[in-house]
Fold this sequence. Notes:
With 60 residues, the chain is mainly alpha-helical.
Amino acid sequence: MMAATDSRHFIAICPRIYRFAPLRMSKDQRAAIHSYDERVGVKDFHDGVTWYRRLLQNLA
């Protein structure tokens, strides 16, 4: 991930920090991050949620 994330606030309490978002985004969507037209497609959002669910299920 090229942008700054909130992860810098958690490094003191957890050394394992993922600095990326598992979301498919077009070049235009990436350029609109934190803009008035920030958006992610519904299917891409769902796929991102699925990715995080699998991550959490496989941590144990």
